[in-house]
Amino acid sequence: MYIIKRLGQAVVTLLAVITVTFGLIRAMPGGPAEYIRAQVMQNRGSNGVDMSQLNSLVESYTNVDPSTPLYVQYFDYLTSVLQGDLGQSVWFNRPVSDIIIEAAPWTIFLLTIAILLSFAIGIVLGAVMAYQEGSRFDVGSTVVSMFLNSVPYYIAAIFLVYVLSIQLSVFPQSGNYSTSIDPSLSAAFISDVLYHATLPIASLVVTGFGGTAITMRGNAIQEIGEDYIRVANLRGVPGRRIAIRYVGRNAVLPMYTSLMISIGFMFGGSVILEEIFAYPGLGYYLLQGIHSGDYPLMMGIFLVITVAVLLCILIADLTYGKIDPRISEGQSKEAY
Fold first, then answer.
1. Contact partners, residue 235, CB within 8 Å, separation at least 6
2. Which terminus of the chain has fewer Cβ atoms in its 10 Å neighbourhood, N or C?
3. Total tally of structural domains belonging to the chain
4. Is the Cα dihedral 127, 131, 133, 138 positive or negative?
5. Which parts of the chain span the membrane according to its record (predicted)?
6. Residue 38, CB half-sphere, CA atoms under 13 Å: how many?
């Protein structure tokens, strides 16, 4: 019953997002329909434009036929989106779904490595800070973590590009792989992809692990002060086992939800990062769509990012009760 309830809420949210997207297509001043009309009239002249052909052209790009009633337009748009048809890109003159399928793996690759590294470094550092609470290492690490966490990732990205790419020429400034290497599963291509992804990943990791470390430190200190830890020490349980299985495990569990949610929200954060490094992921194409007024492309990527956030929150909510046995059945299983 609980799973059905959560799935139902996710479906309602998805339909709401699609409805908002449909409303934006229709109501946005200078929206896709007006933009396509203007382009056609500019090329052919106002006298050489047939409205039926124009409406057909608008429908091919946006999945919305302006000549039909509003409810028919909404139903057609909803059906097309649910079937994976997100329209045609005006700027690239390609199906939006093809562009998303081509770009999404690069964004997922970039963000997955960055998030895993940020959480791994943050959890280890936070645990060490907790066990050395009050020491110079703890104070220094806390100050550094808070400072790095307050730096926007795009500022770090610009700084890394300027120092390591422009001044020292250690890493490439842009792209996802060298044009001289053919895409394949060879070691040379994979190492080249990792080489090009180093600076974008470093920008997210450097500005992201501090928040995780501070949160982990607080959780671990709270667990260390619990009575069951004192009992374990009195019973002679090895300190390493207490640190890893008792303190570490219980301190990490509350961070699981934030990990899953951050995966979804970092899709949105990839827009500026991929533009800085000219990295051809979802964010790069979304900004290209904004610059060129390519509304079908913008709406398609907006929908994909929203669905990614929705799925990550849903997965976090459905699996949190499985990994933490202290969570009881019922309403207390809400992860957010």
1. none
2. N
3. 2
4. negative
5. 7-25, 106-131, 151-173, 193-214, 251-273, 295-316
6. 9
Q: How far apart are CA 208 and CA 110, in angstroms?
A: 14
Query: 3-class DSSP state for residue 95?
Result: strand
Range of the domain at 53: 1-85
User: Is residue 68 left, alpha or beta, with left meaning phi > 0 and alpha meaning psi from -120 to 50?
Assistant: beta
Which residue type occupies 214? I
Q: Does residue 52 belong to any structural domain of this protein?
A: yes
Among the listed residues 149, 103, 25, 148, the one whose alpha carbon sits nearest the alpha carbon of residue 267? 103
46 within some domain? yes
For residues 269 and 126, membership in a common domain is answered with: yes
Asked whether 265 and 111 are in contact (CB, 8 A), the reply is no
Which SS3 state, helix, strand or coil, does residue 88 take? strand
Residue 242 shares a structural domain with residue 118: yes
Residues 29 and 121 in one domain: no
